[in-house]
Write a structure and sequence with these properties.
Layout: H1 6-26, H2 30-38, H3 44-63, H4 68-77, H5 79-93, H6 101-120, H7 132-150, H8 155-163, H9 168-193, H10 200-206, H11 208-224, H12 227-251
Family: Belongs to the 4-toluene sulfonate uptake permease (TSUP) (TC 2.A.102) family.
Subcellular location: Cell membrane
Keywords: Cell membrane, Membrane, Transmembrane, Transmembrane helix, Transport
C-alpha cells in the first residue's frame, strides 16, 4: 500500500490512535510519539510525512475548541512565539537533508529531559514578567528551527507555559493555536521540499482518521484532570518524549 507493507500501515494507524488520545488529554506530544515510533519501522522522510496532515487537522480541533474569540485572544497573548514559528520553520525545513537527524534529536531531547526532571523533583523555574517577551521570542526561534527539520516544535512552548504557570484550559488552547500555525507552515514547506508527495500524501491523510478518534477520547480524559494532575502528567509525558528522542539520537 503506497510503498508500505500492510503491517507497517496497521502499526502506524495504532500509533496514531494512541498519539491522538495523548494529545487530546494533555494538548501535545502527538508528533513526538508518532515520529519517534514511526522512525523505528519507517524511513525518516516517510515518518515525517505521515505525521504532517494529522497534526494539521487535530490542531484545528484543539485551537478552536472554546471558539474563535478565545483562540484569537491566545494569538494576541502569545504573538511573539507565533511570529518566530512562522519565520523559522520554513528556514529550517530547507536544512532537512543537511543536518543529521541524530544531532537534532540529541539537542532537543537533552534539555527536555533535564527540565522535566527538575520540575518533577519539586523545583520551580519561573519566568519574571519583565523577561517574558525575550524568553518567548528565544523559545519561539528554537521551536521554529527544530520544527522544520523534525516536525516537533512544541517542547519550547510547553516549557514556557509551565514556567509561567499558565492555567490548564489556556495552556491547551494556546498549544493548539501555536501548533496549528506551525502545522500550516510545515505542510506548505514540505509540499515544496518534496517530503509530502504523491506517495506520502494518501498515507498521511489515512492517519487523520485514527488521530481524530483518539483525540476525542483524550478530550474526555482532559476534562476530568485537575490542574495538579494535569501539570504532573504534562511533565511526565514531556520527559518521556525527551528520553525517546535521546534514544533515537544514540541509535543513530
Amino acid at each position: 500500500m503506497f510503498g508500505l507493507e500492510l503491517w507497517q500501515v496497521a502499526l502506524a494507524l495504532g500509533v496514531t490512535l494512541f498519539a491522538g488520545f495523548v494529545k487530546g488529554a494533555v494538548g501535545f506530544a502527538m508528533p513526538m510519539i508518532m515520529l519517534s515510533s514511526f522512525a523505528s519501522f519507517l524511513p525518516p522522510h516517510q515518518a515525517l510525512a505521515l505525521l504532517i496532515l494529522p497534526t494539521l487537522v487535530t490542531n484545528v480541533m484543539q485551537a478552536f475548541r472554546q471558539g474563535v474569540r478565545a483562540a484569537l485572544g491566545s494569538v494576541s497573548r502569545y504573538r511573539l512565539f507565533i511570529a518566530m514559528i512562522i519565520v523559522f520553520i520554513p528556514v529550517s525545513a530547507t536544512l532537512v537533508d543537511i543536518i543529521p537527524q541524530a544531532l537534532m534529536y540529541a539537542l532537543l531531547g537533552g534539555p527536555i529531559v533535564a527540565f522535566a526532571i527538575w520540575q518533577i523533583s519539586g523545583r520551580q523555574i519561573t519566568v519574571p514578567t519583565r523577561h517574558r517577551a525575550v524568553t518567548e521570542t528565544v523559545l519561539g526561534i528554537i521551536g521554529g528551527l527544530y520544527g522544520g527539520i523534525s516536525g516537533i516544535w512544541g517542547p519550547p512552548l510547553i516549557i514556557y507555559l509551565i514556567s509561567i504557570d499558565a492555567p490548564k484550559q489556556e495552556a491547551v488552547r494556546i498549544l493548539g493555536v501555536v501548533f496549528l500555525t506551525g502545522a500550516i507552515i510545515l505542510t506548505g514547506s514540505h509540499l515544496v521540499s518534496g517530503v509530502l508527495n504523491a506517495q506520502t500524501i494518501p498515507l498521511s491523510l489515512l492517519m487523520v482518521l485514527p488521530a481524530l478518534a483518539g483525540m476525542k477520547l483524550g478530550f474526555k480524559a482532559q476534562d476530568k484532570l485537575d490542574p495538579v494532575r494535569f501539570r504532573r502528567w504534562t511533565l511526565i509525558l514531556l520527559g518521556l518524549a525527551g528520553a525517546n528522542l535521546l534514544r533515537r539520537a544514540l541509535m543513530g
